[in-house]
Amino acid sequence: LYEVEDMDADISLKEELVEEAKNFQESSNWNQTQRDLRDLKKRWKRIHYWESDYEDQLRDEFEAALDAVYAKRGEVYKEAEAAKEDLIRRAKELAETDNLNKASKEANELMEEWKKAGHAGRETDDRLWAEFQAARDVFYQRKHDAWEQMHAEFDEAKKKKEALIVRARELKDSTEWQKTSNAMKELMDEWKSVGHAGNRVDDALWHEFNDARQEFYTRRNEHYDDLARSREENYEKKKALVEQARAVADGGVYSRENTEFMKSLSNEWKKIGFAGRERDDRVWADFRAANDVYFDGLKKMSEQRQLDWKTRMLDARNKKVELINNQKRQIERLQNDMFGLVSEATMADIQNEIDDKEDFIDELEQQIADIDARLADE
Fold first, then answer.
1. What is the mean pLDDT of residues 84-94?
2. How far apart, in whole angstroms, are the C-alpha atoms of residue 295 and residue 139?
3. Number of structural domains the chain divides into
């Protein structure tokens, strides 16, 4: 009776261990599971074996459950290994990147992903960690080197900007407005090309540099404001002269007094200063147009008489040219008629007629030459 009771108790314990082994398949903490499995095996071995078929069945179930746990652990290890190998690849790529500042955040993210990647087995984990850490060391060493280089560049930029501030202060009191404006622009271009000198000093340096520039530009703007006012006054004076010139020109009276008055307006114009290129060109064109209207009218009658004479001379010349062309056409026809003629008397008559026409052409050409000479003298 006692033996049966002991056997039943041992079988119950083995059934409990089988269920416990099956539950390990749901575990995610494989380091703890490894320890628990070793403890589970020890507990199984401590239970007495009664050599029953049912015990053999339980043993098979127990070992099958353990095998399933180890198989699941192998899959998890492979997944963790693949994930870590991918992180190593990304870490190596990150170690070669040029944008180190932006990559710092990604490097931290890779570390957080590594912590979450899970266990891949002690030896595998150690090997993968060594590779991952080596890539991170390369990255952080490059970042450190870049940081040192950056601060060396900051110091160099600071020196250059301080030199530019000195030069800007030397120019701020200049009255060579255009030349100094160009020089200030060149200084600004140099400032932009120097680069960053570090957040700690860059703003202060910029204020010093810009204050010197603004002092010059304030004085320059005041000068140009005065110049603009003067040009506005000159523009108004010139517009008044344009109105006076138009009044005389539109009157159509071409007297000696008006002529002298128009000349006096031109002399007064010369005494007035600059009014700005665009407005000066425009108002000068208006003034010049009024003068042209008046002085064109002054010459109108004599020019008209001269034009009428030239017209008559040109008409006469054109008629003589037409006569010459007509005579040449007739000569050409006579010359064509001479071909094939047998009678010398007839040929002689035609030649005489041709000679007369050529003499006439010479006379007409002499008359044209006389007309051209008279036209050239005018």
1. 84
2. 88
3. 3
